[in-house]
Amino acid sequence: MLLLAPMEGLLDATLRDVLTRTGGIDRCVSEFIRVTTTVLPERAFFRVVPELLNGGYTRAGVPVRAQLLGSDPTLLAENAERLAGLGPHGIDLNFGCPAKTVNQSRGGAVLLDEPELVGRIVAAVRRAVPAHVPVSAKMRLGFNDDSRAEECAHAIAQAGADELVIHARTKAHGYRPPAYWDRLAEVRASLPAHLRLPVIANGEIWTAADAVRCREVTGCEHLMIGRGMVTDPGLALAIKGQGGVPWHVLPPLLDAFWRQVSVRVERRHRAGRLKKWLNYLRKRYPEAQAAFDALRLLHEPADIEAWLRQAQTAEISTTEAIFRPAAEIAPAC
Fold first, then answer.
1. Does the active-site annotation cover 220?
2. How far is CA 172 from CA 3, 140, 155, 159, in A?
3. Cβ of 86: how many Cβ atoms within 10 Å?
4. What is the pLDDT of residues 175-185, one digit of tens each?
5. Exposed/middle/buried for 291, CB within 10 Å: 0-12, 13-18, 19+?
6. Signed CA dihedral, 232, 236, 238, 243: sign only
7. Exactly one of 28, 97, 214, 220 is catalytic; which is it?
8. Would you place residue 23 in the very low, low, confident or very high pLDDT band (cuts 50, 70, 90)?
9. Torsions phi, psi for 32 (to 5 deg)
């Protein structure tokens, strides 16, 4: 099973929709819904997980599990109960976010220094939602170090979680290579037989070969991929031995992404969202580098839309022809 990870500010519902169209992803996890002092209204859940209005699926039919973040077991349980009534394909709990602002408000990875609290959160949510609704958790190996990784994993399993995703780095490691797959293997192996649950490996899976090595080192059958899939939308298919996604498939997906960004994102931030994705894609596709260069200095939506039209409809014989700057294709309105 391959899961698509959330990435706050990039891999949201818009990019989930587009990436799951390429195939290979079995389930998505939403970016976190922050729980602080109240039970959230339904619109707060729909804003982060609009797939709830589609039976909990992306347009391509991939199920989405909604993720909650917070530190109050009672409030998280009450929000999970409300969320469960909206039809997500499970509820995930975030013990892995490394963002300073999140950690300072006792959310995400900072809770890994409090295994007992982690366990109480999972247990409270598990009790609050119907038995048929899966409850999972995502953690890192620790906050400043990995000395309590086993305690946290045991607490999560003991509390009744159905699955555990482990990002094989601590908060202090951030996203710097490497991912410590061998340490993840130790944490997984430390779970006694009566607490065994599926452990899903996450971190530094950029290629199909990485996936093979990760499975060998960690012993985890299931994987979660994030930045690798954003960089290479064919990664999930490649891991499953079904080829990949050639560049000519991507211009329509870029257009679909742009159309949704144009509805959901403020005008002044729209160009930045498209460029942010292209910045990842250019690590995999030379054509994306050419696209990034063509769009780098453009900010007006009309210019970008003109470029997208040209990218999809022009009869071209060279990559250079595809990616003429939009200003040469049509003037801005």
1. no
2. 24, 10, 22, 26
3. 14
4. 999 999 999 99
5. buried
6. negative
7. 97
8. very high
9. -70, 150
